[in-house]
Design brief:
The chain is of the alpha+beta class. Helices cover about 30% and strands about 40% of the residues. The chain has helices at about 5-15, 70-85; strands at about 20-25, 35-40, 45-50, 55-60, 90-95, 100-105. The protein has a six-stranded antiparallel sheet with strand order 1-2-3-4-6-5, with helices on one face. Strand 3 and strand 4 (about 55-60) form a beta hairpin. The longest helix has 19 residues, at about 70-85. It starts with 5 loop residues before the first helix and ends with a strand.
């Protein structure tokens, strides 16, 4: 199985949140953790972290960005955009910690 194209994940994230990627860099000189900062006009910048493995991508971000029904609506759109980008079924496993949403994405 090939590695997941993390740029497609970033594209779906950008499209569903109506944000543009401002900055991307690998965390602490590693090649498996990517910090992404997104924003738009009159919108506060938001930070997302992608953890990359051979068969999945883990996306984490603050619960303050999306909560409750907004999060539920967003995750449906996000899954649809991922399936369109990968032309394949996508599996998203949701977990949380006290301050972050954590999504494990498998293609």
């Amino acid at each position: 199985m090939p590695q997941i194209d993390y740029m497609k994940v970033i594209g779906a994230l950008s499209k569903t949140l109506n944000l543009e990627t401002i900055d991307m860099k690998f965390h602490d000189r590693s090649t498996d953790r990517l910090d992404i900062i997104m924003g738009a006009d009159a919108v506060q910048e938001k930070k997302f972290t992608l953890s990359l493995t051979n068969f999945s991508v883990e996306l984490s971000f603050s619960k303050q960005y999306l909560s409750g029904k907004d999060f539920e609506k967003w995750i449906t759109r996000f899954e649809y955009e991922l399936e369109q980008a990968f032309v394949s079924n996508v599996s998203i496993h949701l977990s949380e910690d006290p301050s972050n949403h954590i999504l494990k994405i498998e293609v």
